[in-house]
## 1
Amino acid sequence: MSFPTTRLRRLRRNEVLRSFVQETRLSPKNFIYPLFVCPGSGVKREISSMPGNFHFSVDRVGEECKEVADLGIPAVLLFGIPEGKDERGSGADGDNCIVAQTVRAIRKAVGDKLLIACDVCLCEYTSHGHCGIVKDGEVDNDATLELLAKAAVSYARAGADIVAPSDMMDGRVRAIREALDNKSLTQVAILAYSAKYASVFYGPFREAADSAPQFGDRRSYQMDPANQREALREIALDIEEGADMVMVKPALPYLDVIAKARQEFNCPLAAYQVSGEYSMIVAASERGWIDRERAMMESLTAIRRAGADLILTYFAKDAARLLAC
Ligand code: PBG
């Protein structure tokens, strides 16, 4: 049956009809809000490369999390900026590391109203800015695993619900799962950054986390943007190693990867709308070239439509406010 009997415009006539037949719906319940925590007290300082996002000191992060929870957003993802950096990234672990302190502060402020996820990586903590231990000018995979596992255990002990390894070392999900289980932290879930690409779109984040590599780049551990099949292998391996949820990152330039992963795997799938995706929209809207709200909603809807259950996004609060109207 075709035109004139069939007219697809019939169901686009007005807002009620359009909303009635909408295939993809956004909800704040799908969002995870990233937060950056820094040393000091009384700090809430805007990150210049990511307008609308802030560095919070531990004492200020609780109030922010109350707001996040009140908007109906179920989870935050923590990134820590340590007091000092060294070769080994020692600031990433220990019961008093900045992330462990933050987890306790958030729990005190909001109780169980928010899920607390912690990014597990060394790049914010190492003096060379790489995501692992450097030996002879190379990032040493196996030596890094133990440190990642230590960090994950520190965050879990402090009360994190979820740990999210973002380093792209081989075998880190298994190492982290084993370390958690050995410490009877069996209930803590792993959200693996499984298909994380070596992307230029992390640019603004590196200012936020002060984590730009001091030499070379991350292409010996993060994925080549040209590869899709390899992403599926990465995801399959992480699931085998014990990942509870998997992630594709960045999001909008990798919708094909999200769609494929959705088809092939049955565990919850997350996508990270990264700093560059966020800041490009914000910058263009500041110049009057694009409508900020519509670009935000269109990109988030596209990521959901491709198949992501969960979206890590710096727009979480703004989008939640808009969705509440
Ligand atoms: C840490 C990490 C990065 C991001 C999340 N975790 C930076 C990187 O790998 O260079 C990027 C997040 C963003 O750009 O919003 N490894």
## 2
Amino acid sequence: MVSASPREQWASKFGFVMAAVGSAVGLGNMWRFSYLTAEHGGAAFVILYLAMMLFVGLPVLLAELVLGRGAGRSPVQALGHFGGNAWKPLGLLFVASGFVILAYYSVIAGWTVRYTIEAALDSFGSDPAGHFGEISEGPQAIVWHLIFMAVTSAIVARGIKGGIELTTTVAMPLLFLVVCGLAVYAATLDKAGPGYTYYLQTDFNDVFSREVLSEAAGQAFFSLSLGMGAMLTYASYLSKDQHLPNESVMIAAADFAVAFIAGLVVFPLLFALGLSSEVSESTVGALFITLPGAFGRMGATGQIIGTLFFATLVVGALTSAISLLEVVVASAMDTLQWSRHKSAVVFGGIIALCGLPAAVDIDVLGAMDEVANNIFLLGGGLALAVFVGWVMPDPIGEVQTGAPGVRWFFLWRTLLRFVVPAVLLYILVDAVPRTVATLAGLFR
Ligand code: PHE
């Protein structure tokens, strides 16, 4: 069914790119990338990650854009349009991913809101680990999670131009400037050198294990917002004259740049304060325990740097959360014929409720993150690559619209048809049992 009012569109090309970059740049860049790199071979991991982005992430990103713009509809309808009813369940899986990811993502985002306020008031206290324990689970976590979801829903309810595009075109350039500024500041710190060394110390032995490969692929998918229809949905509001290959390269480059630069901020800060030994095994540890500890000891400078750092996280998280909710909202509008406002309020509310278990128990949050990454995104990405590579009638024709003269389409389709599915299958065979084991552990 086609809805009565004409489909919304981005006001400008820049607006679309900023919205897509906003979706990509988020907690994944600052919360996970630096830690993964330090844990898994430093510069060697960065190279592996770049390879994953180039040969797996980018082709899938372009595939999502092609499918979304080609169909001009939300995921379920887009898959049905080109693939018939048999492919609609994949669209539903995307919507389900949006539910699960946003539900716990918003809880973490809630922590960052709270931390921003605490940084500004210089009230982290002397026991950051204990403090994190207090605020990460229970009533505190619930309140900030609900506030964050309310803001996300309000922006999405305002629509593509007036809500999403407006927010992201202001927020993303600012975010980029602040992250670069923080990196410059971090470079002036005494122990910046050892911090960089810890971050990027090269160990090639590490990068060839299946687990590290799977971490790199999972991170590439999560960070580029792939495998759950977010980019697809954003692309469905595009006009035909956009150069999709250029845009996917721009989005991926910006996403990588922010992740990489965030690492250049985090590690010098930790080392400057002699906290390197406290860099714990977990991402959460580095970001929410050790860094506040660092800011707390830096006096007034820490107050400013800490506030900027956590505010950047809030903004990154918000622009990503918006895209997650938009997948669900666009689907409700297309499929149930609901108004945007109603869809944003009702589904924003339901997702907020789904996040409550994650706000009460951090192990539930961890399990949701693992299921979403290892199964939903990688599985969704695999199915999507197969769909655009093998099933969609003329994907190359669709890319060429708006991008004449580009010659590497066949390479793109070959990657989609063979390389992406092979890599993702290899990883899934290993990741699925691991995730099932985590889930079993949770219910034990
Ligand atoms: N890319 C976002 C981040 O790095 C997370 C995200 C995943 C957003 C999937 C939308 C879809 O934080």
